[in-house]
From TrEMBL:
Keywords: Iron, Metal-binding. This is DUF971 domain-containing protein. GO terms for molecular function: metal ion binding. InterPro entries: GBBH-like_N (IPR010376), GBBH-like_N_sf (IPR038492). It holds the Pfam family GBBH-like_N. Residues 20-101 form the Gamma-butyrobetaine hydroxylase-like N-terminal domain.
Length: 117
């Protein structure tokens, strides 16, 4: 595995289906994210504040929000990020490429980030 701390550059960002996003990085690493995971870690200010107030650091989803959300649209933001429109109407989070790489749920990336911190 290449250095996950280097400036990440995606070669391909693809919505595999409404529940899954795939990113192929320039170092040939592929990250696969579920829509539920990306919604729960949304970096927008209101979600960040909700997580800050939570003991676990994860966003507490109220019962009005469906437990299964889909990604209805993905848009590029400049050359550094994407923005996701979720089926629950939420669309204010900007997922930078740095953040996406750090959020990679694979075991190798999680272990690398844990060792760094």
């Amino acid at each position: 595995m290449a250095n996950p701390f280097a400036m990440p550059q995606p070669l391909e960002i693809r919505r595999v289906n409404p529940l899954e996003l795939s990113v192929l990085w320039a170092d040939d690493h592929r990250s696969t994210y579920s829509s539920d995971y990306l919604r729960k870690v949304c970096p927008c200010e209101s979600c960040h504040e909700e997580r800050r107030q939570s003991e676990t650091g994860l966003r507490v989803i109220s019962q009005e929000v469906p437990t299964r959300v889909e990604m209805s649209q993905i848009s590029g933001v400049g050359r550094y990020a994407i923005q996701i429109q979720f089926s629950d109407g939420h669309n204010t989070g900007i997922y930078s490429f740095n953040l996406l790489r750090k959020l990679c749920p694979c075991r190798e990336c999680r272990e690398a980030w844990e060792q760094k911190e």
